Amino acid sequence: MKKKVTIKDLAKLSGFSVATVSRVINDNGRFSEETRKRVLDLIQQTGYQMNYSAKSLRMKKSFTIGVLVPDISNFFFGEVVQKIEEILFDKGYSTIICNTARNNKKESAYLQMLEGKGVDGIIVISGAEDFSFEETDAEKNI
Known about the structure:
By secondary structure, the protein is mainly alpha-helical. The protein folds into two domains: 7-50, lambda repressor-like DNA-binding domains (434 Repressor (Amino-terminal Domain)), CATH 1.10.260.40; 59-140, Response regulator (Rossmann fold, 3-Layer(aba) Sandwich), CATH 3.40.50.2300. The protein has seven helices and three strands. A three-stranded parallel sheet has the order 2-1-3, sandwiched between helices. The protein is elongated.
């Protein structure tokens, strides 16, 4: 298995600090165009991939939205979910699409799973006649 290239590896290879490499990767802060080019070239050469889990922990944001849908095979729901996914993707978000199959237990389990994954939001297209979202202790304290 090939060793994963880290931001520290990029810094060492480029001769720049980890902070400078991070600024280039996140396009945040000041650096020259030459620095940008050198770091981006190294990223391409080494196959560096950002660790999104670490970034999520650091930023306290997952850039992920959960979408609960009662029946993904239903044309209407499929079209709605597809449009939601397109819009979110264009805004830099990934989606976790959860097909509940109109099953209340499955819907509740998905809600708990999405909360555990720390998604930034949940879009619920519920198939239940009486839907409720229970507040967690953490949300009650906000």
